[in-house]
Write a structure and sequence with these properties.
By secondary structure, the chain is mostly beta strands. Helix content is 10%, strand content 39%. It has a five-stranded mixed beta sheet with strand order 2-3-4-5-6, with helices on one face.
């Protein structure tokens, strides 16, 4: 949903959104985002509560993982139109304070894109079905959480010299 900055008046602009998207095998369902956008000097501030449902395969055993995340968001938008030019040393020209600011076109922004980026940042890096997930056997593919591995262990003769050190 595109929001034009001219829509934001002194009393602010109310935002109520819900949508879904996928990223590879990951499914994101933004059940709701209830918030507002207010002008703050030359910038704009989006505040609100994000209610997110996330599902993906477990990183160890590929079983489904489902998470519900509720987060209060405060996003600062700068309608610069483009990022500041790169410095000769490869730096982007943003100060530390400006690094957390979303740079948008001069006249509008896409609230779905902002919420999509925030949802991606909220999901844990390691996604497990449970903390003690044992994963799957690399040999036979058995889920070690529910069954015992039946494959025979093959010794790699290249490591035989290390076995003598025991």
């Amino acid at each position: 949903m595109i929001i034009y900055y001219e829509q934001v008046h002194d009393e602010g602009f109310i935002i109520n959104e819900a949508f879904s998207f996928t990223e590879g095998d990951d499914k994101f369902d933004i059940k709701s985002f209830s918030g507002r956008i207010d002008k703050a000097g030359d910038a704009y501030v989006v505040t609100g509560k994000l209610n997110l449902h996330f599902s993906c395969p477990c990183d160890r055993c590929l079983e489904p993982v489902n998470m519900d995340i509720v987060e209060d968001l405060i996003l600062t938008l700068s309608p610069l139109g483009e990022y500041p030019p790169m410095e000769a040393d490869g730096e982007d020209g943003l100060s530390d304070e400006e690094a957390g600011i979303y740079v948008t076109p001069k006249d509008h922004f896409d609230i779905h894109e902002l919420l999509r980026e925030e949802a991606l940042l909220l999901v844990p890096e390691k996604r497990l079905c449970r903390q003690d997930c044992k994963g799957i056997c690399q040999g036979c593919g058995a889920s070690l959480n529910t069954e015992k591995c039946t494959c025979t262990k093959h010794k790699d003769e290249r490591w035989a010299a290390l076995d003598k050190l025991k």
